[in-house]
Fold:
Amino acid sequence: MKGFAINLTNPFDVYFFINLKKYVLNNYDINIVCFAPIAWKEADLQPYLDKISHNIVYISYPDCRYFNFNIVVNVIHIRRLIKQCRGLNEYILVTPDKSTLISNILLSNFKNKILLQYPFDDSDLYKRSKILTFYVNIYCHLFKLNKVFVDLHKEKEVEKLITLKTSIKDTFFIEKTSKGGSVVFPSNTIYNGNEIIIFGSRFIDWKFSTTKLVDEIIIIFKNIKKNYPNASYMYIPHPRESGEELKLLQDIFEKRLIVKNKIIPGELILQQVEKNMFCISIGSTLSRQAYLNGFRSYTFYKSLTLNRHIKDALDKIHSNLPKEYFLKNTLSIEMKYPKNNATDANFDDINNTIKGYVENNTSQVI
Structure:
């Protein structure tokens, strides 16, 4: 075994792999091959990538997607990536994604592979598309990839859910779950402070956004400003928000929002915070991560006029959290709400799997 190949599909993965290196892979003197989008060569992420390993070989891949209708270019990129994988058979692939074409190429071409997943299941919000499933599996057949299903969201038909037809043997869930092996990292100790962290969202650009909904959100943020006038405010933008939301909030908070770079994952920013009053969002996944990492964290989507499908989707994302986490009245934020500093860390399952891979290849050294 020569080392590990890690697949970075979005900025959150950097945060996860830093923790994986710290708590699981720290026992190994490892080489890492890092698959990442070309755009990630930006210097903003480099200091964080260096925390994973100083001995990293980057394989930057271009835009290669199931639904890239420039078929000739797509085929060239697929063939190139498969060729790059062939020299890495003695590496262990660790990937937090299985839905993209890039991830399927990697999962189909590595013998030893570990898949990391969240235990959320929102498949009931989608319906199968036979035509798109047939189209996508032409690629899978031509290049001997795992076969997939393609489902379309019942409300937002442009949103697709792509799942593998076959399961990956070594699958671990990020968070404690009864579904199988888990990977749970220790939470931080967060001391009381004067800072409120706001996680951004694309509430103006949402397909289902209405004037009434935006007005409700404005009222809630005005209440926060009114109730905590002396607080400092950190704003972590949504990676894909247009900037209109930030302009609106800066007006509400009188230009006092300290805005973080949206290229850098919010989870990495939270890792550097030692003091905090609370975190809040409409329904960002970062609110959940903040709670699991020791922060007093809130969402307020339950107090908004949202359609049933959107609320159902958010309920799945924010499941198994205390009732205080869900604000229904921002005029009265319950500051007695206990912070979560007792997450049961568990990474024995994935550690034992990696040991098994290593012991079965004792002639090689990581």
